[in-house]
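Hi V.,

You were right to ask for the full record rather than a summary. Here it is.
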Amino acid sequence: DSLRAIAFDVYFALDGVAPVLGQEVATLNFGELSDALDFEADGYVVTITTSGDPADVLFVSSPATILARTDLVVTLFDGDANNTSPLVVRGLGVLGGAIPFHDLSASSTVQFLHTAKEMGTTDVYDDAALTSQILNGHAYRDLTADTPIAVGNNEYFYTPAGDTAVVSLDTNFTVTEGFHHRVTAVGTGGVYSTINSLLDRRSIDTAAKLLYFPSSNNFEFTDLYIVESGTTIDDQTPFRAGTASRVPNPAFELAPGSYDVYITGFLETVTIAGPFTLDVAVGDVVDMVVFDTDDPAVLEIVVFPNP
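Predicted structure:
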């Protein structure tokens, strides 16, 4: 919506070349398409400014390499909840594929989720020497806030809280520019790892979205029931049967309404979690995680608020 009401200038230039009035490659209103232009193969930056004012920069990208004999339609989109920038620019290939032009001012982010109960409360470092602590007292069931993170490979070391003599978990993952990420600690019995994922926060226009992650070490497979509020699961079919623990699920759609959520063992009817009240409206994104408790026969359902 940020570009719908104004005319804007588009600059497509080599890295380090500042926008100068008269060197814009297009002046556009929403919905318009410029004439085709030819460029040499090289690394290019997209800069968007208010029309006629190169100092009023609305967007500037990191450089993207454009190969010879490449046909692109460089297109502007409004960012959504999955993007860290309010504007998204993509070079769409006429034969498929896309080249991202990432917003230089919008950092990628990471959050940490602790689902490894037996690992206990931890500290987290981002260097092998354990001198750069990024999390202090990261407890079981904790989900941290979004934090900016450098693009590329990042390595993290988990230690028992207050004790750098032991590294409980060493993990690394590659950060995608312009997106939100989650590092989820999982495991039991001294064997720990992380699930590193892009967050799916984009809402949908016709239903609610359920993001569901069962993290239990006590139940390898469970059935998920989502029933109309006030009803039981007797003679009901599971919403999802046989969901595997510690395995990410695709997003599920939910019609708007009031529900009770139950979890049972796989192909069993004994409730091990719930009823958990869940009220959803169109466009909601529900971030639901299932945790072990001190009772190995009972699980806990937690819904985390969206940022």
